[in-house]
Amino acid sequence: MNFADLQFWLLLIVALAVALLLRIPFRRSLGESIGRYDRVSLGCVGLFLLGCVSLQTLTIFMTVSLITFIGLHLILRFSKSSEFYRKWLILLIALQLSPLLWYKYGDFVGNGIFHLELPFLIQVAIPIGISFYTFQLIAFAVDTLVHGKPLPSPINSLNFAGFFPQIVAGPIERRDSLLHQLESFRFQWNRESMEKGLSWIVLGLFFKRCMADNMAS
Known about the structure:
Layout: H1 6-30, H2 34-53, H3 55-78, H4 82-113, H5 119-122, H6 130-145, H7 154-161, H8 164-167, H9 175-183, H10 191-216
Helix pairs in contact: 1-2, 2-3, 2-7, 3-4, 3-6, 4-6, 7-9
């Protein structure tokens, strides 16, 4: 998912067009509850873009997201005090980190340190964005358990973990700065926001394609 690649923008336009076209009949039936459809659509757009990168990327993202949400749900339901929260949090973080350690450091640890000479570790492809969403979900788990934050709904948790504009290049967001925006997300036309957003996109693409790529060579 390269933001400087034309294919990304074509896929994004197609995904948004489908979501907005389907929104028309849903708007009539859902009325004021259309915001729920918008949040589900946002999640589907993010999953679609990850799936277009590779099935592996989508699968690992869903695995880490489900581990986080289900783990937090079970801890909050069956633990009786904050002391138990912290003990289970260590186990949850270990589970969250396990895909990252396998894909990013499996070759270094297995072949480099222990000299196991396992060829399949060399050929492991690193899923796109795994570092960013892993550490973002770790911060999400810490905020939820240590700071006593409520567990959001599944779709809001998914959108927080896989918000496509920042899943590849960051920054890693804490739940207080991003989650409330996603919980109130709506598809709407705001000219001021569109002009401001497009200005930043054009400026970023200029820095990347016109300056950075040419200076790199």
